[in-house]
Amino acid sequence: MNVKDLNFAYRVKHALDQNLENLPASTAERLASARKIAMTRKKPEPLHLRVGRLALTGPGHIGDYVQTRLSWIGRVGVMTPLLLGALVFVGLYQFENEQRIAELAEIDAAVLADDLPVAAYVDKGFNAYLASRDDQQ
């Protein structure tokens, strides 16, 4: 049942509720028998839809409309951007991590390939030597 049919059904129900006291007895009996016939022809609803409808039905009977919008397609539509976002963040983390490792490897290679011994880099006077050497140039 689409939204247009639901709106029509609610308008008919509202009109009947307003004029219930003014209806002749024969009309009320015919309506009651028509309702019984319609209820016998109605297909049984699956249990998971009934439970979901009970949980979602509230003021204004918006439950039917909300239930149709929360189908599996809607759930996939919500989960897809979330999963893509998570994949992008993981990819960015991996890329940045590889860049950092490459920079550290480059520094290590430069230190090991240099003529100075490794102990010179940890010497406190080495920074002073580099600073004085830069001032002279």
Overall shape? rod-shaped
Give the class from helix and strand content and strand pairing: mainly alpha
- How many runs of DSSP E, i.e. beta strands? 0
| Domains, number | 2
Radius of gyration in whole Å, from Cα? 38 Å
Measured distance between first and last alpha carbons: 85 Å
Q: How much of the residues is beta strand, in percent? A: under 5%
Mind describing the biggest β-sheet?
Answer: none
Provide the low-confidence segments as ranges: none
Helix % is over 70%
Q: What is the H-and-E element order? A: HHHHHHH
Count of helical regions: 7
Can you give a write-up of this model?
80% of the residues lie in helices and 0% in strands. The chain is mainly α. It has two domains: 3-70, no CATH class; 74-120. Helix 3 crosses helix 4. It holds the Pfam family DUF3619. The chain crosses the membrane at residues 72-93. Keywords: Membrane, Transmembrane, Transmembrane helix.
